[in-house]
Prior knowledge:
disordered N terminus; 3 domains; single chain; Serine Threonine Protein Phosphatase 5, Tetratricopeptide repeat; 0% strand
Amino acid sequence: xxxxxxxxxxxxxxxxxxxxxxxxxxxxxxxxxxxxxxxxxxxxxxxxxxxxxxxxxxxxxxxxxxxxxxxxxxxxxxxxxxxxxxxxxxxxxxxxxxxxxxxxxxxxxxxxxxxxxxxxxxxxxxxxxxxxxxxxxxxxxxxxxxxxxxxxxxxxxxxxxxxxxxxxxxxxxxxxxxxxxxxxxxxxxxxxxxxxxxxxxxxxxxxxxxxxxxxxxxxxxxxxxxxxxxxxxxxxxxxxxxxxxxxxxxxxxxxxxxxxxxxxxxxxxxxxxxx
Length: 275
């Protein structure tokens, strides 16, 4: 990935972080189906929906899908059931099926911000495997960006969507736009070490090393075990000619990391600085 590409690879993507939970039914079923189904059927649809949520919380996604499907059969206009079934498929790695369900949730409720956001994450997941920025087809990231932009239009307080917008722009090597979105994510969630870290990698990519170091500092302050932040701060110090600081960060990387990529890179840089 070149300069910016390596920076993107040195920590694990937090993919699917919003996909674990399932939306609670609350009074959604009652409000949605009261005009079209009898009370006994409504209760059954709600029962299947809530059972799906419980199974989803237990990580029993195949069974959750069965329950959401039964709820949908009884209340086919229930957007949240399609949405939650999409979450279950997403957690199983069945991204195309997840997207189909998010599509239907959005068709039924065009203002469903979370459905746009999670569909965007699914597109992101489909695109990032074996992706080489500047070489591979960026189609999935372009679709993801469309969905994320719609999601933040509908819900401008969702820090995680801005974070994924930043990731998507990083994949397109649009570092300035990535920085804008990480900055918004930080404004909404100032305790998120990953947003500082990602913004730091973009500042490094643009050669703004002092600003990058400030962001890595904050990422490490928020998460002292953040090996990738030490590694990239070490790289920034190395470029600035701050040999002692760089070596200290690379040594810390080796201590904290279980990534062969990071450990090998840190060892190589210590050797270079020791010559």
